[in-house]
Design brief:
With about 400 residues, this protein is an alpha/beta fold. The chain is built from 15 helices and 14 strands. Helix 1 crosses helix 15 and helix 8 crosses helix 13.
Length: about 400
């Protein structure tokens, strides 16, 4: 089968969409399928092209058996919704122009979070007269409103109509959560064409390992109980809550034995760093985004991970992929996200759920877990027991069967 996959995030970028797409495509290529990805020059989240790449009209490379075609796009940092939409739309146009040069395809996949990529995939599928698969990673533009980046307006309503049009025109929708599937059905989309393939973890990379001694020393973490957030520092993540915990720890007896790492970049990072400096939060350490091959070294430093999103109904429907990476590493989670992901945490027994944006609750769970080694060891053991249930290669195989079935459907 010849698979054409459109995505504006791809390695060496290290965010969740890039990792999922790459790991799925790698498994499909290993299974003998011809996989082509059309993406842009790697630049997320700083809006700066990675070393070794240029923002050119056309670049081609082979990554683990995947043909990767990189096209020009308007590049901007992950801040400012208007410029970001211009970024998204420029990729959409470039991908549509580039796709005819990929001569054969049995189906076309477009992945969100932003759906201008899906728009491009739909247009390409119609030109090639092949099935269109919409991989749904986020309900967008609803997520824009949820974080306050844009208020309800004529533009938002137009985007929502376009969103619904794409759902209805898709030959198949692959959702990353059951909650997304339910939301689409409630909006009148045919549930029979919606399948769910959750996020997962590559256990060949994410598995238990001793704390990296070099990083432990360089970051001053010897003898510390380390909690860490790894990922995008965006409006959706409300990381001010974690800074509040760092401040509260100064008044906790023995609070100096804790350190908090914030690893990654994003639109809110500069503001968070400024706040931490103004409040003299010397128990909180910021680390810039690290290359994909280095991520596990930083995971190894963590005694617990923190997953957090803003308190809003929309985020009850998401499942952060870092949850599964933590399972693979054997790192229990303090989980500040309600809904479907919290149900996984509680069902698998891999961590503790707390109310989003409630710093006092997070502080209580963090300190109590550090003081209860038996409970900590139980959570860690459950992480390692649960991780194989979410192996990326198995989930990629599940999605491949969906694609094979879809490719066989006749097109009109």
């Amino acid at each position: 089968m010849k698979i054409l996959f459109l995505t504006d995030n791809f390695p060496p970028e290290v965010n969740a969409p890039a990792s999922r797409t790459f790991e799925h495509c790698r498994e499909w290529a290993n299974a003998g399928h011809d996989v082509t990805v059309i993406t842009c020059s790697p630049n997320f989240p700083k809006g700066k092209v990675f070393a070794g790449y240029k923002n050119k009209l056309w670049q081609r490379e082979i990554m683990d058996g995947i043909q990767v075609i990189r096209v020009w796009s308007y590049i901007t940092s992950n801040s400012g919704i208007k410029l970001r939409i211009l970024d998204y739309m420029s990729y959409m146009v470039s991908a549509i122009v580039a796709a005819p040069f990929v001569r054969r395809a049995d189906l076309v996949i477009g992945t969100s979070p932003q759906f201008f990529t899906a728009c491009a995939a739909y247009v390409v599928s119609r030109v090639k007269r092949k099935p269109f698969v919409f991989e749904l990673r986020d309900i967008w533009p609803e997520s824009i409103k949820a974080v306050g980046a844009m208020k309800d307006s004529a533009v938002i309503r137009m985007l929502e109509r376009l969103e619904l049009y794409l759902y209805r025109k898709a030959d198949r929708i692959v959702s990353v959560t059951n909650a997304f599937k339910s939301t689409l059905i409630d909006r009148g989309v045919d549930g029979g064409k919606i399948s769910v393939v959750t996020n997962g973890v590559d256990l060949t990379r994410f598995h238990p390992r001793p704390k990296d001694p070099e990083l432990t020393a360089s970051l001053g973490l010897e003898g510390k109980f380390v909690a860490g957030y790894i990922g995008t520092h965006g409006m959706a993540h409300a990381l001010e809550t974690i800074l509040r915990v760092a401040a509260l720890l100064r008044d906790v007896p023995g609070g100096d034995r804790f350190r908090i790492l914030l690893i990654g970049d994003g639109a809110q990072k500069a503001a968070l760093e400024k706040q931490a400096s103004e409040e003299n939060l010397d128990n909180l350490i910021f680390v810039d985004s690290v290359p994909k091959d280095e991520v596990v070294r930083y995971w190894s430093l963590l005694d617990v991970s923190i997953i957090h999103l803003r308190k809003t109904d929309l985020f009850k429907t998401v499942i952060p992929s870092k949850l599964f990476e933590g399972m693979g590493m054997g790192v229990p989670v303090l989980h500040g996200v309600a809904g479907e992901s919290a149900e996984i945490v509680e069902r698998e027994g891999v961590g503790i759920v707390f109310e989003p944006e409630n710093a006092e609750a997070l502080l209580q769970e963090l300190t109590s877990l550090e003081q209860d080694p038996a409970r900590y060891d139980d959570l860690r053991a459950r992480c390692l027991l649960a991780a194989p249930n979410y192996q990326r290669n198995i989930l990629a195989g599940n999605m491949l069967r969906i694609l094979e079935e879809t490719a066989q459907c006749p097109q009109v």
